[in-house]
Amino acid sequence: MRIMAALAEVQLVSKVAERLHVTQPAISKQIAEIESALSAPVIYRERNRLFLTDVGQRLAAHAQAVMQQLRRAELELEALSLGASGHLRIGAVTSLSPTLVAKAVVAFKRVAPRVSISVTEGHFISLRPLLERGEVDVVVARVWQPQEVPDLEQSVLTSEPIVVVSGRDHPLAKRRRLQWSDALSWPWILPDKQSVARRAIEAFWAEQGMATPGDVIEAQSLPLSLALMCDLPYLGLFPETLALSHAMRGDLSVLGLRMGGVLAEGRCFWRKGQIEQNAVLRPFLDCLRAVPGRF
User: Can you give the pTM of this predicted structure?
Assistant: First the structure.
């Protein structure tokens, strides 16, 4: 069940193995056993990615529903046994706050209503010192070039693309075919120069042989970016889920440019040993991992 649910989300055996803390051969063996039991394939491969067959999609949908119910039951039982109360301090990047973090907080408050919560937004480079000093208990951030961080534990949470957006009346919003050279001739709203996100974006553009536009507004706030793009001909980057939601309301247009998976992966970080010392941290981490769809 866990394997099928994870495959539906990340589509890579390596990512599934990392999420479930097992080896890749073990995952492949389990998939083969599932297919043997069903007498039907559940996956097919294209290049380096896995895709679910019709049978696999149906099985994964049932698996995800069962896993969510089990997680919800575990959380409720854990909260009851703890009589959970206290204060949870969360650090989060702005691109994950309105989706993954918000849904996790809602789920957490339902099972631990007496715990007070504070959320500090920023980018990972600004939030990491707060985590290391114990000023926040957990940081939820997008990562670029993932690596081990001394004295911190981490867990993969999500894989969601970043997409290029504009105001709905922007000239590029009416064009079906776009090149990066078209987009980078316009002004942009970008994260702070010192942020992981900004470094990743500029490295991606450099790989395309393109330079960062000269006219840039630096802003971390997505609501501010949205307001600016409604009145100015600037382009920006939004998480896909949020971008599509605003596009459906007519606030933004999603442009047909791809970021090649840059900043798609979201992770949570916490200090080593803190789960044993902080009674409310583990239930919140479980809520993060249990968010439907994992955005």
Answer: 0.72
